[in-house]
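Sample entry was shown:
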Amino acid sequence: MSGLRPEENAPTRIAEAVLLVVALALGMGGMWMVGYALEDGLPEGFWTYSIVLAALAFTTHIVLRLRAPYADQVILPAVVLLNSVSMAMVLRLDLVDMRGANASRHLMWTALGVIVACVVIFLLRDHRSLRRLTYTAMVVGIVLVILPLIPGLGQEINGAQIWIFIGPFSLQPAEFAKIAFAVFFAGYLVANRDTLALAGKKFLGLQLPRLRDLGPILIVWAVSLAVLIGEKDLGTSLLFFGLFVGMLYLATDRVGWIVIGLTMFAGGAVAAWSIFSHVQARVDIWLNPLDAELYAREFGGSYQIVQGLFGMAYGGMFGAGWGEGYPDRVPFAFSDFVYASLGEELGLTGLLAILLIYLVIVQRGLRHAVGVRDGFGKLLAGGLAFVMALQLFVVVGGITRIIPLTGLTLPFMAQGGSSLLANWIVIALMLRISDAARRPSALPTRGALADPAPAMVGGDAIEVGGPGVGPVQAGTEAGAGRGATPDEATQIVRGVER
């Protein structure tokens, strides 16, 4: 598909539209079945929710076709499917007066997230312009993480101080900090990957980088530890640390970073368990959820996870059916434990289908990280895809007792304004990068930067032309308006080498 012209790309656009119709139909079907199971008729607001979701989906589709015609045609329908199914589940919990569940609020945040994603796609013509904001992104990420610790602005909820309140609205700044840190890591590592991979001394066969090269990254790592200590947020700390190690590995291709990261994580986990009581409580719940004392504890006990496990067991292989289960018995079934709620009503088959949809999104993100022609885009796309996969593992692993609960939410499915808004921005960036990755090399991005695209010299990527322009197409003053000859391209590459 990457070699097609816009008019030849029409079948791709039609395929995306068809997939959007299927995704919306599944979500609307869920709301329809919820209404007939609980109220013997269409639920209140069914047509409003359905029309708004369809309008949002096809508006995004049109924006993509106008501003990013070569963008991936699968990612948007996959996300719309997850968001539509979550709408059905939140509506189902809302109909049984589940405290905190509110379908209208969920739709409002979904609409805001889609609108912001469209704005990002419309205004961000070239993802490489974000590279200019490398250190700005680092500062923004650190400020966002620290905001909940400011007296009067941050507030502790359910044992973790990760929220800020501005009037009637609440936000979880860490959701946006992960995007800022991904931009920072991508910009910093693409400029310093050689020194990180090759400079420094070897220890036990591992290439250790110089401390001065790691300085800015260690600052972000220290911030993630401060989050754990000051805000009692194990999940966000794990997410930041995983992003830190994952992007280092992507940039340097050194397995040693995985070993170092796992060692640091093991040491930090043991230290956190020995120092912090809330971490000890999470581990106790993980290891002994059926303990009578833990189960009966009003706050911080195992009641939530046990009820979630019972619900998924009741769902069995094919589920109890929309509206036929009892997910309202699980605390925060619409946010922290929406995965367990879906498991009760859709069964193991439904949960596996949902995981496959996430797998498709992550796989497409990694695929475009390989295909895009600049190092910054490769790292940014890879980092965003990795952080989504890590968040999915942490959430599902906590609910199914593979790891202790961390308090993160399931992207696009859990009710929560911060999560929906931040993850739609992630999708917008992935779509923008996919457009650059799939764009034919003879068609540079309109309004592109002067930053060149990479050519391979000595096995490493260097930049010699405009976006999507390889060394043979790189223009010179003598050859403006035409592709460079092989001899001219050779001179350009040799000049860059020098």
